[in-house]
Known about the structure:
Layout: E1 7-9, E2 12-14, E3 17-24, E4 28-33, H1 42-53, E5 57-63, H2 81-99, E6 104-108, H3 110-121, E7 127-131, H4 141-146, H5 153-160, H6 172-179, H7 187-194, H8 198-205, H9 209-213, E8 219-222, H10 234-244, E9 252-255, H11 259-272, E10 283-285
Helix pairs in contact: 2-3, 5-6
Amino acid sequence: MNSLYEWQNLPMELDGVALSxxxxxxxxxxxxxxxxxxxxxxxxxxxxxxxxxxxxxxxHLIDLAGFGASGRKAKPPFFDVPFWLRQxxxxxxxxxxxxxxxxxxxxxxxxxxxxxKTAAVGPGRMQVLAIGAPAGPxxxxxxxxxxxxxxxxxxxxxAMRPMTSAATAPDPALVEARLRPFxxxxxxxxxxxxxxxPDVCLRDVALTKSEAARLRCAVTLMHGRQDRACxxxxxxxxxxxxxxxxPSSLPNIVTPRRGRRRILRLLFLRVSKKxxxxxxxxxxxxxxxxxG
Length: 292
């Protein structure tokens, strides 16, 4: 990893699958859970934020099983929500061992839904920033295209265009990096098997009402108004949580004008003051952006 700060490998293993967990030293621990797509990893999703967050935060990046430096499951299901939740729990346990406190949990897209599910299992022990969490099926056409193994760089660039607010062409260097896992071996077949039915995948990962009822932590939902891959309004995503959660966990809803700047501001506010129940459910609105 290219960075101004040194990363430390904290390898894990679960059911015989080798799992990647990297840490960069700092004060308040953050555990970041990436989304699902071609070439997605912790670094690919959160790279632009990392140097801005150090050294204030101790950064923990994981690659979900089947992605990046982590190994693959030998048998289906490969889109295995229970397995990924156990992987996140394992990483949280490591964070607590190192820092004597639970991390702030940040998830992107499917990773955001996994973060919310994880928080429901351990109520009250962490805070969650969920970016673009899907609320369930049906899968839109943009997501179906993105969740198919790309044939070549042009196909991947086409699938990535809707991930930006203006549907502009992605940086060729980014396309090349995201395409790399598909250039050798049978990873394309594995990827397609994992995401064979996007509707089932979204159903399996969406936060349920019973899980929402167990949430007792501070939650912030951030969703780009022009998010074409998961075009679920922040209001709909929040409603499921707000109707069943306790007053202390009613979510802040953020539809950001400048996604990266807003994320940084939220993170620094999270560690500078305690959650305010009087402001629970407050909606912070700006212009649309798609933070894919």
